[in-house]
């Protein structure tokens, strides 16, 4: 990739930032889907086209306005508010409501985060840095981050954006695996000290994934080198065949790609990113080897099911990829995070901001911005099943252990104290609509 071009882009940022609220602005039609419109997406494994590359892009989805219930009363619902109604959360609660009022825990890590480029970096990084001490930064810029050298440049910009909020914040990096990734590139990554792995996007699966791998066979030498050097493979686990239903793509990926891959490269450690289905939760839980396969889980996939996409109309702010699934899948993913193999699951928000206008358009981008209240969202989900005691391991221990890094040393405290999420946050000269925009949520971080 052209580092100079990337630097030019990245340096177009402002030095100020913040999580301050700004008024909702009218969205403009945006070309931000343009990256997804790039042609050349060849389907993963077989030969089909990149369906998603013409319909959306992100690897995650939607923030949205919806309504939720308070944690202190599972049966209470806040009335639908103005503006065409909110999406009402549909999860059920069997938790020990009010049993825990504050929760002090080891500082957490976000093992799947998008911080964009240009002026947007400075807008979004402080949201994460105020709560987390580390994050694994996704490489799907346009063009993507493909070498340790490029990652170093990007990392320094992120550090700069975080320093006034949290001087201890450490961005860790993953590189974008392409058909051309060489063993030398893998060696350089391993030597860097800050690259933790490579991200495998099937071509066309999500935002800026047109550089993705067209056939896993092409990257076998790189994967073997990663296994040898202890780097981790992060996978976006969806096939992209246009003939496969969008709700079935994760399940198909496990059978068609992930199982053969884990069999073929015996020592490779893999994180199945942002899992959304019972199939994935079961596959990870039941995998016969410990410490080899893990999964990240986003807030939206344990708080919402696919009804949220169509609650009273189309809801672009809860559109994400992988897309929200049926209730039985939401329950299964949440139960896996607190279940007997819970050490294999950890926090990865996949917070993925897009400008408001890029979501509210004829080609709405996929992605949910959740960094502003990430830990609170997970607390809501874990509290809903009475498992707040499992939150610390999920947020602060399991990921560090899997990545073979020390756990963080500081602490953070969650308090059961309601606050209202702003309608928008500033976003590099534009605005982003956050997850639970305009809604009150029951957990605050101190
Ligand atoms: Zn992602």
From TrEMBL:
Cell division as a keyword of this entry, yes or no, is no
Q: Which SUPFAM superfamilies match?
A: Metallo-dependent hydrolases
| Name of the protein described by the UniProt record | dihydroorotase
Which key words are in the record? Hydrolase, Metal-binding, Pyrimidine biosynthesis, Zinc
Asked if the Swiss-Prot or TrEMBL record annotates the protein with the keyword rRNA-binding, the reply is no
InterPro entries, alphabetized: Amidohydro-rel, DHOdimr, Dihydroorotase_CS, Metal_Hydrolase
According to the entry, every stretch annotated as the Amidohydrolase-related domain falls at 110-413
Enumerate the Gene Ontology biological process terms. 'de novo' pyrimidine nucleobase biosynthetic process; 'de novo' UMP biosynthetic process
Citing just one GO molecular function, the answer is: metal ion binding
The pathway where this protein functions is: Pyrimidine metabolism; UMP biosynthesis via de novo pathway; (S)-dihydroorotate from bicarbonate: step 3/3
- GO CC field: chloroplast
Stretches for region Disordered? 49-84
Q: Which family does it belong to?
A: Belongs to the metallo-dependent hydrolases superfamily. DHOase family. Class II DHOase subfamily.
């Amino acid at each position: 990739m052209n580092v100079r071009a990337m630097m030019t882009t990245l340096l177009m940022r402002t030095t100020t930032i913040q999580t301050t609220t700004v008024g909702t602005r009218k969205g403009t039609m945006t070309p931000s889907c343009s990256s997804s419109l790039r042609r050349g997406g060849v389907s993963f494994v077989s030969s089909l086209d990149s369906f998603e590359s013409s319909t959306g892009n992100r690897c995650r989805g939607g923030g949205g306005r919806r309504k939720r219930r308070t944690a202190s009363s599972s049966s209470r619902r806040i009335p639908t508010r103005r503006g065409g109604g909110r999406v009402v959360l549909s999860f059920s609660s069997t938790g020990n409501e009010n049993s825990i009022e504050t929760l002090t825990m080891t500082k957490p890590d976000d093992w799947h985060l998008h911080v964009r480029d240009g002026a947007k970096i400075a807008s979004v990084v402080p949201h994460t840095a105020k709560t987390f001490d580390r994050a694994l930064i996704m490489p799907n810029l346009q063009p993507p981050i493909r070498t340790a050298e490029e990652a170093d440049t990007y990392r320094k910009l992120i550090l700069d954006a975080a320093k006034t909020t949290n001087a201890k914040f450490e961005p860790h990096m993953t590189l974008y695996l392409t058909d051309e990734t060489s063993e030398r590139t893998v060696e350089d990554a391993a030597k860097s000290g800050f690259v933790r792995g490579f991200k495998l996007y099937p071509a066309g699966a999500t935002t800026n994934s047109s550089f993705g791998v067209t056939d896993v066979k092409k990257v076998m030498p790189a994967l073997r080198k990663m296994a040898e050097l202890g780097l981790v493979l992060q996978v976006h686990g969806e096939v992209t065949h246009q003939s496969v239903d969008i709700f079935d793509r994760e399940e198909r990926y496990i059978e068609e790609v992930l199982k053969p891959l884990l069999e073929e490269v015996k020592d490779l450690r893999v994180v199945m990113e942002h899992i959304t289905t019972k199939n994935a939760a079961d596959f990870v839980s039941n995998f016969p080897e410990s410490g080899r396969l893990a999964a990240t889980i986003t807030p939206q996939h344990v708080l919402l099911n696919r009804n949220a996409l169509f609650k009273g109309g189309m809801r672009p702010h809860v559109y994400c990829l992988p897309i929200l699934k049926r209730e039985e899948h939401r329950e299964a993913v949440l139960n896996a995070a607190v279940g007997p193999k819970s050490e294999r699951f950890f926090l990865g928000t996949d917070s993925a901001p897009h400008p408001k206008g890029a979501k509210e358009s004829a080609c709405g981008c996929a992605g949910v911005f959740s960094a502003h209240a990430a830990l609170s969202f997970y607390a809501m989900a874990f509290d809903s099943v009475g498992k707040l005691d499992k939150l610390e391991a999920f947020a602060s221990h399991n990921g560090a252990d899997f990545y073979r890094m020390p756990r963080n040393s500081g602490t953070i405290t969650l308090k059961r104290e309601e606050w209202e999420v702003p309608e928008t946050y500033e976003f590099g000269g534009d605005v982003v609509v956050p997850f639970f925009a305009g809604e009150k949520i029951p957990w605050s971080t101190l």
